[in-house]
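Adenylate kinase
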Amino acid sequence: MRNIVMLGVQGSGKGTQAEMLAEKFSVSTVSTGRLFRSRIEEGTELGREIAPYVERGDLVPKDIVCRVVADWMDAPSARKGFILDGFPRNVAQAEALTEMLAENGRTLSDVVYIRLSDEEAMRRLSGRRVCANRDCETKFHVDLHPSKRDPNRCDRCGSELVHRSDDRSEAISRRLAIYGSETKPLVEYYRERGLLREVDGEQSIAEVFKSIMEKFRE
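Structure:
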């Protein structure tokens, strides 16, 4: 059974790779960002707690994140394996994840780290546009991967493309700073535990996926 965590600075493409790996291994995947947005859009009490952190680009407190992720992992669709994108984001969350899994007799099998420079991350994130349809959320980029039919509409479902508040320069800079201080230490944390599979994120999507599969075969 594959229980995988994806690590990498925002814009590294870990969400895209998570989807590809989920299809390859026939497991479920989700990003904490998607979980947070769904709670915010539903207008739940939990969503109202999350919203200010997301808008500022801050880390959502551990207890809230753990509640959201635990609910998702308890669903039948995640029982056959999962890929987590965006959680854990620091060592405290990693330790909480280990405890959550142990309670159900589960463990992590792999941690995929997609390495990317801050400069490239800024370029990718600032140009990102996302389908506003919550059931689609296909990602585009104004330069690297524009929508073919209409620059303001999703090729997949026709819905409006939006520039999210957390993909604007000020929020991106804040997220990159937080990543450096909070999330990057997870690389060594998981390396020490023999779970880390590190690949170069400044390749094409296909080349990154190939590199990940080669790491798994090792």
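The mean pLDDT is 90.
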